[in-house]
Amino acid sequence: MQGFFFLFFLFITSFSFLTTISTSTITDTLTSSQILLTNQTLESPNQTFVLGFIPGTNSNNIYLAIWYKNIEDTVVWVANRDNPLQNSTNSHLKIGDNGNIVLLNSSSDSDNNLIWSSNQTKATNPLVLQLFDNGNLVLRETNVNDPTKYLWQSFDYPTDTLLPSMNIGWNFDKNTEKHLTSWKNTGEDPSTGHYSFKIDYHGLPEIFLRNDDNIIYRSGPWNGERFSGVPEMQHDTDSIVFNFSSNQHGVNYSFTIGNPSIFSRLVVDSGGQLQRRTWIQSMKTWTNFWYAPKDQCDSYRECGPYGLCDTNGSPVCQCVKGFSPKNEQAWKLRDGSDGCVRNKNLECESDKFLRMENVKLPETSSVFVNKTMGIKECGDMCHRNCSCTGYANVYVTNGGSGCVMWIGELNDIRDYPDGGQDLFVRLAASELDNSGSTGGSHKKNHKAEIIGITISAAVIILGLGFLLCNRRKLLSNGKKDNRGSLQRSRDLLMNEVVFSSKRETSGERNMDELDLPMFDFNTIILATNNFLEANKLGQGGFGSVYRGRLIEGQEIAVKRLSQTSEQGVEEFKNEVKLIAKLQHRNLVRLLGCCVDRDEKLLVYEYMENRSLDSILFDKARKPLLDWKKRFDIICGIVRGLLYLHHDSRLRIIHRDLKASNILLDGKMNPKISDFGMARIFGRDQTEANTLRVVGTYGYMSPEYAMDGNFSVKSDVFSFGVLVLEIISGKKNRGFYYADDDMNLLRNVSENNSSIKLL
Ligand SMILES: *[C@@H]1O[C@H](CO)[C@@H](O)[C@H](O)[C@H]1NC(C)=O
Ligand SMILES: *[C@@H]1O[C@H](CO)[C@@H](O)[C@H](O)[C@H]1NC(C)=O
Ligand SMILES: *[C@@H]1O[C@H](CO)[C@@H](O)[C@H](O)[C@H]1NC(C)=O
Ligand SMILES: *[C@@H]1O[C@H](CO)[C@@H](O)[C@H](O)[C@H]1NC(C)=O
Ligand SMILES: *[C@@H]1O[C@H](CO)[C@@H](O)[C@H](O)[C@H]1NC(C)=O
Ligand SMILES: *[C@@H]1O[C@H](CO)[C@@H](O)[C@H](O)[C@H]1NC(C)=O
Ligand SMILES: *[C@@H]1O[C@H](CO)[C@@H](O)[C@H](O)[C@H]1NC(C)=O
Ligand SMILES: *[C@@H]1O[C@H](CO)[C@@H](O)[C@H](O)[C@H]1NC(C)=O
Ligand SMILES: *[C@@H]1O[C@H](CO)[C@@H](O)[C@H](O)[C@H]1NC(C)=O
Predict the structure, then answer these.
(1) pLDDT tens for residues 679-712?
(2) CATH number of 511-605: 3.40.50.150, 3.30.200.20, 3.40.630.30, 1.10.3370.10?
(3) Which of 683, 682, 674, 633 lies closest to 654 in space, CA to CA?
(4) Superfamily of the domain at 2-157
(5) Residue 745: its pLDDT value, please?
(6) Cis peptide bond upstream of 315, omega within 30
(7) pLDDT tens for residues 274-308?
């Protein structure tokens, strides 16, 4: 009996030396004696990833690929992207005689039939091909399972996707490089597309997104915490960790996710966008948590050398202080790509440095770098070297360290509301003399002392607020208005025609298509610790607001509408519709929303200092607001309001401006929030009437409170009340002197000598 089985075994093995893997048993491994047919697959041990064959939408093309098993249509790797199989009959994958993985289009091993092969050179012991749970396909010796000894791995040949624990970058010792390249058509045609995401190691390394050879976007150099051009990147989070390392042996970029059940990947999409996509299981969808280019200012050539891009500016391009547009004509037509030139030539020894705060550092491919030098020494060295045009810290961690010095033009600088870095720019001394010190900032040129506050001062401040904060805007608005609307529409048309080709790549297109991200209810439960009472920030008529933290590390505020309030639903819709279309540094940013059965939630950026009233009317916290801060807050509110009323695409009346609706971020920058009652006006509409007067008594203008008439002026009235509150530190409604019950407004108007401050 035993002999029979032995003979039978011999017969089997000699008859079919190569067996196909059985489709009934799921396996993660292909041995040298097996082949993988086009209707077969390998699955990773946890069944996260599958290796198999996918059809292209184009004719009968077939590709060897890796995809998520339980997520449809998400391919993460393709082997033969530019050389598809054309005929599935007899096509197969196997470990060839020389130890390479080979993809053949026929049963014969002839080189003519080779479609794709791994290029490893060591043919040694018995080999196996194995698919791991992280999506890596490796070729290894049977008895070796040490990542540093793999003979070949798919992670070394990325296509358009960077998975957790995969890396891109350079290995100088082996002279190899890895980068991402888009598909020709995402989801349809995996052949090599035009867009790539590749590290440039010159100077201070950074990553460039290119369309063929043209740079579209750059990440900015790594500053120890994040890329200088990605302020959203969070460092101190337990779930996603970004890792960028660079030394004499190479440069690497990778990321890891603490929780293996969370799928997240970085993709270069065939439309030229870099996207971080995260899978939301309960909604069965990929969400774009981050993408670039995100706005016009992410576009590499937007403002040219010495131009400073500010998304809230109009136009977005400004020149760095001490510089003027090189091509005045194009600049006026909103093409800033020629950049700016110096007003005054440098003189070397007497030159001074302008400190620019919160910027994305200029391109660093040809800079001098010393990673240990301090900023002071760096400045001295730059000052001594006449060809040095600017300097900055390399790292922002621990108060800043390292020295990067630019020789030549400063390219692609942009401004961030917060999260950017300090950059010092060399200027002729006379350019800086009027602002006093060498550290004069380009942003901080409106300074005012507020002394002797009386009612008249309040009025002056109201005016000053508008004038000082928006001098430039008002001037340019005024000019435009004088020219009349005909001229204006002609200018617009000109811009459209002349620069339509440029718009294509500027990222603006994407802004228009941007839909408000939908958050999954479970994500929010996770983020807020199931609406833990301790995370509650506040409560209003509509529901409650909770503090939370997304797995990406970003802090959020979640407004949860009470499930019963019918009125709340209207306001929810209103707010979503409205605020999703608005973007301004003085408006609170809506990150997304969530609708799940009876739950309606709005997700906002988290404001560290909560609402203005919580500081202004609080005895203990009040001293946090000195005059300078109060003035800056007033200016910020004006900017936000001006944007709502004049500069945004819609004309918006907020209708509920009050101290509790002004939120303050970590740096006490004010942001207007709560658009539940806001109304959109037509461009030429100046007034409207409502039967339902909403808002807060004490802030409402008389004609609105009594007749329901509202216009931009109602907001200005509320703003006036707010200014009085900010100056006096007293609340208008519910403010009583010990022996009378007048409110703040009446007090100001009847007692106009002076009011008690603070
Ligand atoms: C896979 O294809 C081969 C021929 O190409 C065929 O013999 C076999 O039956 C197929 N298996 C399945 C499960 O379809
Ligand atoms: C695979 O599954 C095992 C057991 O279910 C689990 O411990 C492990 O973390 C999983 N690994 C991955 C990468 O998902
Ligand atoms: C595929 O190849 C087989 C022989 O290997 C041939 O008989 C068949 O016609 C081919 N099919 C196509 C669509 O080319
Ligand atoms: C296999 O591919 C080679 C090269 O692309 C081609 O010349 C050959 O005809 C193909 N064989 C089959 C059977 O399709
Ligand atoms: C493998 O090496 C050969 C010769 O060096 C080259 O022509 C081929 O493109 C390489 N294939 C891959 C997949 O790298
Ligand atoms: C970053 O990667 C380097 C090498 O690639 C590794 O030595 C280091 O431990 C990693 N750091 C973190 C925080 O993962
Ligand atoms: C980059 O990563 C590889 C392994 O993935 C490692 O061997 C190499 O040391 C890393 N290089 C740097 C500069 O961290
Ligand atoms: C970098 O700066 C430090 C401190 O000034 C100095 O000791 C070191 O020699 C410098 N390194 C290089 C490569 O210039
Ligand atoms: C200025 O610095 C650059 C870059 O380090 C260097 O090439 C050049 O020689 C320096 N010039 C002087 C005058 O020191």
Answers:
(1) 766 656 666 666 556 666 677 777 776 677 777 8
(2) 3.30.200.20
(3) 674
(4) Bulb-type lectin domain (2.90.10.10)
(5) 65
(6) yes
(7) 998 888 776 677 877 788 888 889 999 899 999 99
What's the rounded Cα separation, in Å, for the pair 710 and 687?
6
Partner residues linked to 153 by β-bridges: 138
How far apart are the C-alpha atoms of 438 and 443, rounded to whole Å? 14
Query: What confidence tens digit (pLDDT) does each residue in 357-380 have?
Result: 999 999 999 899 999 999 999 999
Helix, strand, coil proportions of the chain in percent (round to 5)?
25, 30, 45
- The verdict on the CB of residue 500 being under 6 Å from ligand 5 is no
90 CA: nearest ligand 1 atom: 5
What is the atom index within ligand 7 of the atom nearest the CA of 245? 14
Q: Among 172, 245, 246, which residue has the most ligand 7 atoms within 8 Å of its CB, making it the best to mutate?
A: 245
Question: Closest residue (by CA) to atom 13 of ligand 9?
Answer: 385
User: 376 is written with which tokens?
Assistant: 């002071």
CA atoms within 13 A on the CB side of 627: 9
Active centre residues (catalytic): 656
CA atoms within 13 A on the CB side of 162: 26
Is position 326 annotated in a ligand binding site?
Answer: no
| Residue 297 in tokens | 């200012």
Contact of 742 with 711, CB cutoff 8 Å: no
Q: Is ligand 5 within 6 A of the CB of residue 121?
A: no
Q: List, by residue range, all CATH 2.90.10.10 domains of the chain.
A: 2-157
Residue 135 CA to ligand 2 center (angstroms) comes to 13
Confidence band of 560 (pLDDT split at 50, 70, 90): confident
Cα–Cα distance measured from residue 362 to residue 391, given in angstroms and rounded to the nearest whole number: 10
Task: Using alpha carbons, select from 3, 174, 156, 17 the residue that is nearest to residue 77.
Answer: 156
Q: Averaging pLDDT over each range in 57-61, 331-335, 742-746, which range is the top one?
A: 331-335
β-strand partners of 253: 168, 244
For ligand 1, atom 9: residue with the closest CA: 39
**Which residue is associated with the tokens 């360290």?**
401
Angle at 290 between CA 285 and CA 296, to 5 degrees: 130
**The predicted structure's pLDDT at residue 22:** 65
Asked if residue 380 has its Cβ within 6 Å of ligand 8, the reply is no
Atom 14 of ligand 6, nearest CA residue = 243
Ligand 5 atom closest to Cα of residue 119: 1
**Cβ–ligand 2 contact at 69 (below 6 Å):** no
For residue 260 and ligand 2, the question of a CB distance below 6 A is answered with yes
Stretch(es) of the chain classified as CATH 1.10.510.10: 452-507+610-751
CA angle 300, 271, 103 (to 5 degrees): 120
Q: How far apart are the CA of 106 and the centre of ligand 3, in A?
A: 10
Check residue 644 and report its DSSP letter.
I
**Which CATH number is correct for 452-507+610-751, 1.10.510.10, 3.40.50.2000, 3.40.50.150, 2.40.440.10?**
1.10.510.10
Task: Decide: 248 in ligand 8 pocket, CB within 6 A.
Answer: no
